[in-house]
Amino acid sequence: MPPSLIAGFALGLSLIMAIGAQNAFVLRQGLRRQHVFWICLTCAGSDAVLITAGVFGFGSLALAVPWFEQAMRWGGAAFLIWYGARALRAAWQGGEKLEAAQDGAGAALLPVLATVLALTWLNPHVYLDTVVLLGSISAQYPQPLVFAAGAAIASFTFFFTLGYGASLLAPVFARPRAWQVLDAIVGLTMWAIAVKLLLM
After folding, report:
1. How many angstroms separate the Cα of 63 from the Cα of each of 11, 50, 91, 167?
2. CB atoms within 10 A of CB 46
3. What is the Cα–Cα distance from 98 to 96, expressed in whole angstroms?
4. How many domains does the chain have?
5. Could you list the residue range(s) of the whole structural domain that residue 180 is in?
């Protein structure tokens, strides 16, 4: 296996495993078994596009536009505050539980994809990790595109494992209290990331 591929996979996986708004959303939808395939594909596909853009030098272009980072930071923070408030309200109200027969029915696909796209593309950290960091590090390897492929494979591996692996926790989330705890964690995570963005 090419060293560039292994290095890209290892670095990509280490960056994406950090707890964040996107991962929390994938976990929640995986537990609900709602549109898991499309959510995982959207997250991993977005990462692949951004990583490829970084390899082709778009990181320097993003850094050259002074308003880009600030606009993404404020937009991302506003969205995270709103989404965090929704999660915390759900935690306060309670009453949700995971039905054993639930197989994807529920929220419509397009609103769910719009949410996951916002969580992905309105987060400036995504650009720093994929376009700037992975893009610049790929140039240090003899096969930058192979390095990028490794990072993209790591993203697909992680998101599909998280989305479909969440079903292993289904017995725990058959209890409404577990959903309240998860929603509280998701909401607080969203708000913590929003505060971090605003203080950057």
Report:
1. 22, 14, 39, 40
2. 20
3. 7
4. 1
5. 3-199
